[in-house]
Amino acid sequence: MSFSSHAQFHLGAKAGANLTKLDGQSFNDKFELGYQLGGFVYYNLNDFLGLQMEVFFNQTNTEIADSYSDIIDQSFENDKKLNYVSVPLLLRLNTDGLLTISAGPQFSFMMNENVLNNGKKLFKDSDFAAIVGAELNLFPIIIYGRYTWGFADISDFGGDVKSQQIQLGVAFRFF
């Protein structure tokens, strides 16, 4: 691998906080705190454009609305922790080196089971979302923030449910 192609390829680790809410009749309409932990790889196609792929563990917390308390009290606790493996594929717009704007799709796969007493699943196995965000590049440290809009209905309980998430965190670029 030549030095010029090596300089275009970058690898790193990231960790941060998630503020997530699920929009749906069965869920409280407020953001709940969770976390994320994982890694990323990106390749700069030129000075302005790049592609970034990430794989990270993403914990989403939510609370079932009180209107379903009779069902919930007999079946499970109101607070739910949803554990996902998320895989975003992002287009990077590299500005002057200090700021990077990124956007693209994210696919997430549920890692835990959430079922009612009768065996019906509460949440679906996957989620599809769009991400837009920005990074402040203080190499090797990167500070990032982004917003995720869920497009897929992720629940089999109480109508159409979509996720929204604010992600804030710090990443370390190895090279």
Distance between the termini: 14 Å
Q: Structural class of the helix and strand makeup?
A: mainly beta
Query: H/E series, N to C?
Result: HEEEHEEEEE
Q: Indicate the radius of gyration in whole angstroms.
A: 18 Å
Which strand order does the major sheet show?
A: 1-2-3-4-5-6-7-8
InterPro entries: Beta-barrel_OMP_2 (IPR025665), OMP/PagP_B-barrel (IPR011250)
Domain Outer membrane protein beta-barrel: 8-155
Organism: Galbibacter pacificus
Pfam family, one: OMP_b-brl_2
Verbal overview:
- The chain has 175 residues and is mainly beta.
- The chain has one domain: Porin.
- It has two helices and eight strands, in the order αβββαβββββ.
- The chain has helices at residues 3-6, 69-75, and strands spanning 9-23, 32-44, 49-63, 79-94, 99-110, 126-138, 141-150, 162-173.
- It has an eight-stranded antiparallel β-barrel with strand order 1-2-3-4-5-6-7-8.
- A hairpin with a 4-residue loop joins β2 and β3 (49-63).
- The longest helix has 7 residues, at 69-75.
- The relative contact order is 0.23.
Protein topology:
Elements: H1 3-6, E1 9-23, E2 32-44, E3 49-63, H2 69-75, E4 79-94, E5 99-110, E6 126-138, E7 141-150, E8 162-173
Antiparallel strand pairs: 1-2, 1-8, 2-3, 3-4, 4-5, 5-6, 6-7, 7-8
